[in-house]
Design goal:
With about 230 residues, the chain is mostly helical. It has one domain. Helix content is about 80%, strand content about 0%. The protein has helices spanning about 5-15, 15-55, 65-70, 80-95, 100-125, 125-155, 165-220. Helix 2 (about 15-55) runs antiparallel to helix 6 (about 125-155), helix 2 (about 15-55) packs parallel to helix 7 and helix 5 packs antiparallel against helix 7. The protein is rod-shaped, with a radius of gyration of 29 Å.
Length: about 230
Protein backbone atom coordinates (compact mmCIF):
# COMPACT_ATOMS: atom_id res chain seq x y z
CA UNK A 1 0.00 0.00 0.00
CA UNK A 2 1.45 3.36 -1.06
CA UNK A 3 1.84 5.97 1.64
CA UNK A 4 0.75 9.55 1.07
CA UNK A 5 3.94 11.62 1.26
CA UNK A 6 2.50 14.94 0.08
CA UNK A 7 3.73 18.10 1.82
CA UNK A 8 0.34 18.69 3.44
CA UNK A 9 0.24 15.16 4.85
CA UNK A 10 3.82 15.38 6.10
CA UNK A 11 3.05 18.64 7.91
CA UNK A 12 -0.19 17.44 9.48
CA UNK A 13 1.35 14.17 10.62
CA UNK A 14 4.48 15.72 12.09
CA UNK A 15 4.97 15.87 15.84
CA UNK A 16 3.66 18.87 17.79
CA UNK A 17 7.11 20.40 18.30
CA UNK A 18 7.92 20.16 14.60
CA UNK A 19 4.55 21.68 13.70
CA UNK A 20 5.23 24.60 16.06
CA UNK A 21 8.63 25.11 14.43
CA UNK A 22 7.06 25.05 10.97
CA UNK A 23 4.35 27.51 11.98
CA UNK A 24 6.93 29.89 13.45
CA UNK A 25 9.05 29.73 10.32
CA UNK A 26 6.05 30.37 8.09
CA UNK A 27 5.11 33.40 10.20
CA UNK A 28 8.71 34.64 10.01
CA UNK A 29 8.66 34.19 6.24
CA UNK A 30 5.37 36.09 5.93
CA UNK A 31 6.70 38.91 8.11
CA UNK A 32 9.95 39.09 6.13
CA UNK A 33 8.08 39.32 2.82
CA UNK A 34 5.99 42.13 4.29
CA UNK A 35 9.17 43.95 5.27
CA UNK A 36 10.75 43.25 1.87
CA UNK A 37 7.90 44.79 -0.11
CA UNK A 38 7.57 47.71 2.31
CA UNK A 39 11.30 48.43 2.15
CA UNK A 40 11.38 48.01 -1.64
CA UNK A 41 8.74 50.70 -2.21
CA UNK A 42 10.00 52.84 0.68
CA UNK A 43 13.57 53.07 -0.63
CA UNK A 44 12.26 53.84 -4.09
CA UNK A 45 10.26 56.76 -2.68
CA UNK A 46 13.31 58.01 -0.78
CA UNK A 47 15.52 57.92 -3.88
CA UNK A 48 12.95 59.69 -6.04
CA UNK A 49 12.29 62.36 -3.38
CA UNK A 50 16.03 62.97 -2.86
CA UNK A 51 16.63 63.25 -6.60
CA UNK A 52 13.73 65.69 -6.97
CA UNK A 53 14.99 67.95 -4.18
CA UNK A 54 18.56 67.78 -5.46
CA UNK A 55 17.43 68.92 -8.91
CA UNK A 56 15.48 71.77 -7.32
CA UNK A 57 18.45 72.70 -5.14
CA UNK A 58 20.92 72.91 -8.02
CA UNK A 59 18.44 74.72 -10.26
CA UNK A 60 19.64 77.96 -8.65
CA UNK A 61 16.62 78.67 -6.49
CA UNK A 62 17.12 81.07 -3.58
CA UNK A 63 18.16 79.17 -0.44
CA UNK A 64 15.79 81.12 1.75
CA UNK A 65 12.92 80.14 -0.56
CA UNK A 66 14.01 76.50 -0.44
CA UNK A 67 14.10 76.68 3.34
CA UNK A 68 10.62 78.20 3.44
CA UNK A 69 9.30 75.48 1.12
CA UNK A 70 10.88 72.79 3.30
CA UNK A 71 9.09 74.17 6.33
CA UNK A 72 5.73 73.97 4.59
CA UNK A 73 6.14 70.39 3.31
CA UNK A 74 5.25 67.56 5.67
CA UNK A 75 6.39 64.67 3.48
CA UNK A 76 9.71 66.07 2.30
CA UNK A 77 12.74 63.99 1.42
CA UNK A 78 15.55 63.09 3.85
CA UNK A 79 17.86 65.38 1.90
CA UNK A 80 15.40 68.26 2.24
CA UNK A 81 15.13 67.74 6.00
CA UNK A 82 18.92 67.65 6.33
CA UNK A 83 19.13 70.89 4.34
CA UNK A 84 16.44 72.48 6.53
CA UNK A 85 18.21 71.52 9.76
CA UNK A 86 21.52 72.96 8.57
CA UNK A 87 19.90 76.12 7.24
CA UNK A 88 17.89 76.56 10.45
CA UNK A 89 21.00 76.36 12.63
CA UNK A 90 22.95 78.65 10.31
CA UNK A 91 20.25 81.33 10.39
CA UNK A 92 19.80 80.95 14.15
CA UNK A 93 23.51 81.59 14.74
CA UNK A 94 23.40 84.54 12.37
CA UNK A 95 20.52 86.02 14.35
CA UNK A 96 22.62 85.69 17.50
CA UNK A 97 25.29 87.85 15.84
CA UNK A 98 27.83 85.03 15.67
CA UNK A 99 30.48 86.49 13.41
CA UNK A 100 33.03 83.69 13.43
CA UNK A 101 32.75 81.76 10.14
CA UNK A 102 34.08 78.58 11.70
CA UNK A 103 31.43 78.64 14.43
CA UNK A 104 28.69 79.18 11.87
CA UNK A 105 29.82 76.28 9.71
CA UNK A 106 30.45 73.95 12.65
CA UNK A 107 26.96 74.61 14.01
CA UNK A 108 25.32 73.98 10.64
CA UNK A 109 27.37 70.83 10.04
CA UNK A 110 26.57 69.42 13.49
CA UNK A 111 22.87 70.01 12.89
CA UNK A 112 23.03 68.33 9.48
CA UNK A 113 25.00 65.39 10.87
CA UNK A 114 22.44 64.85 13.62
CA UNK A 115 19.62 65.03 11.08
CA UNK A 116 21.52 62.66 8.78
CA UNK A 117 21.81 60.08 11.53
CA UNK A 118 18.10 60.32 12.34
CA UNK A 119 17.17 59.91 8.69
CA UNK A 120 19.51 56.95 8.31
CA UNK A 121 18.00 55.26 11.36
CA UNK A 122 14.55 55.57 9.79
CA UNK A 123 15.75 54.29 6.41
CA UNK A 124 17.47 51.29 8.05
CA UNK A 125 14.42 50.34 10.11
CA UNK A 126 13.46 46.64 9.94
CA UNK A 127 16.72 45.80 8.16
CA UNK A 128 17.98 43.99 11.25
CA UNK A 129 14.82 41.87 11.21
CA UNK A 130 15.70 40.55 7.75
CA UNK A 131 19.21 39.80 8.95
CA UNK A 132 17.85 37.88 11.92
CA UNK A 133 15.42 35.85 9.80
CA UNK A 134 18.16 35.08 7.29
CA UNK A 135 20.64 33.90 9.91
CA UNK A 136 18.37 32.16 12.43
CA UNK A 137 15.74 30.43 10.26
CA UNK A 138 18.02 27.63 8.94
CA UNK A 139 19.02 26.71 12.49
CA UNK A 140 15.43 26.75 13.69
CA UNK A 141 14.49 24.51 10.77
CA UNK A 142 17.42 22.23 11.59
CA UNK A 143 16.22 22.01 15.18
CA UNK A 144 12.81 20.92 13.92
CA UNK A 145 14.46 18.32 11.69
CA UNK A 146 16.61 16.89 14.47
CA UNK A 147 13.63 16.75 16.81
CA UNK A 148 11.49 15.08 14.16
CA UNK A 149 14.14 12.46 13.39
CA UNK A 150 14.56 11.73 17.09
CA UNK A 151 10.80 11.36 17.44
CA UNK A 152 10.69 9.06 14.39
CA UNK A 153 13.46 6.77 15.66
CA UNK A 154 11.90 6.58 19.11
CA UNK A 155 8.70 5.37 17.45
CA UNK A 156 10.65 2.83 15.39
CA UNK A 157 12.24 1.36 18.49
CA UNK A 158 8.98 -0.42 19.27
CA UNK A 159 8.93 -2.20 15.90
CA UNK A 160 10.42 -5.64 15.43
CA UNK A 161 11.15 -5.14 11.74
CA UNK A 162 12.29 -1.79 10.30
CA UNK A 163 12.21 -1.18 6.57
CA UNK A 164 12.73 1.86 4.37
CA UNK A 165 8.97 2.23 4.08
CA UNK A 166 8.64 2.61 7.84
CA UNK A 167 11.60 5.00 8.18
CA UNK A 168 10.90 7.28 5.20
CA UNK A 169 7.72 9.04 6.41
CA UNK A 170 9.21 10.12 9.75
CA UNK A 171 12.40 11.42 8.17
CA UNK A 172 10.48 13.17 5.40
CA UNK A 173 8.27 14.91 7.97
CA UNK A 174 11.36 16.15 9.78
CA UNK A 175 13.12 17.38 6.64
CA UNK A 176 10.16 19.58 5.76
CA UNK A 177 11.15 21.82 8.71
CA UNK A 178 14.60 22.40 7.19
CA UNK A 179 13.02 23.14 3.81
CA UNK A 180 10.71 25.75 5.36
CA UNK A 181 13.65 27.25 7.23
CA UNK A 182 15.55 27.70 3.97
CA UNK A 183 12.41 29.05 2.31
CA UNK A 184 12.27 31.75 4.99
CA UNK A 185 16.01 32.46 5.08
CA UNK A 186 17.03 32.72 1.43
CA UNK A 187 14.74 35.62 0.38
CA UNK A 188 15.57 37.47 3.61
CA UNK A 189 19.33 37.21 2.99
CA UNK A 190 19.02 38.28 -0.65
CA UNK A 191 16.79 41.22 0.28
CA UNK A 192 19.07 42.27 3.15
CA UNK A 193 22.13 42.41 0.89
CA UNK A 194 20.21 44.33 -1.78
CA UNK A 195 18.76 46.86 0.67
CA UNK A 196 22.06 47.32 2.50
CA UNK A 197 23.71 48.22 -0.80
CA UNK A 198 20.89 50.64 -1.70
CA UNK A 199 21.03 52.30 1.73
CA UNK A 200 24.81 52.72 1.42
CA UNK A 201 24.26 54.57 -1.85
CA UNK A 202 21.63 56.81 -0.26
CA UNK A 203 23.95 57.52 2.67
CA UNK A 204 26.78 58.47 0.29
CA UNK A 205 24.42 60.77 -1.62
CA UNK A 206 23.34 62.48 1.61
CA UNK A 207 26.90 62.85 2.89
CA UNK A 208 27.98 64.33 -0.43
CA UNK A 209 25.12 66.82 -0.22
CA UNK A 210 26.18 67.81 3.33
CA UNK A 211 29.70 68.55 2.10
CA UNK A 212 28.49 70.50 -0.93
CA UNK A 213 26.00 72.52 1.10
CA UNK A 214 28.68 73.22 3.70
CA UNK A 215 30.88 74.66 0.95
CA UNK A 216 27.99 76.88 -0.17
CA UNK A 217 27.49 78.12 3.39
CA UNK A 218 31.23 78.75 3.65
CA UNK A 219 31.08 80.99 0.58
CA UNK A 220 28.10 82.84 2.01
CA UNK A 221 29.50 83.53 5.49
CA UNK A 222 30.77 86.84 4.20
CA UNK A 223 27.42 88.01 2.84
CA UNK A 224 25.30 90.63 4.52
CA UNK A 225 23.42 89.53 7.63
CA UNK A 226 20.19 90.87 6.14
CA UNK A 227 20.26 88.22 3.43
CA UNK A 228 22.17 85.25 4.84
CA UNK A 229 23.05 82.43 2.46
CA UNK A 230 20.79 83.84 -0.22
CA UNK A 231 22.62 82.43 -3.24
CA UNK A 232 24.49 79.34 -4.26
Amino acid sequence: MNQDLSIFTLVTQASLVVQIVMAGLLLASLASWTVIFGKLFGLRRVRNANDAFEREFWAGKNLNDLYADAGRRVDGSPMERIFASGMREFLKLRERRVADAGALLDGARRAMRASFQRELDVIESNLSFLASVGSVSPYVGLFGTVWGIMHAFIGLSNLTQVTLATVAPGIAEALVATAIGLFAAIPAVIAYNRFARDIDRIAIQLETFIEEFSNILHRNTGTAAAAPAATH
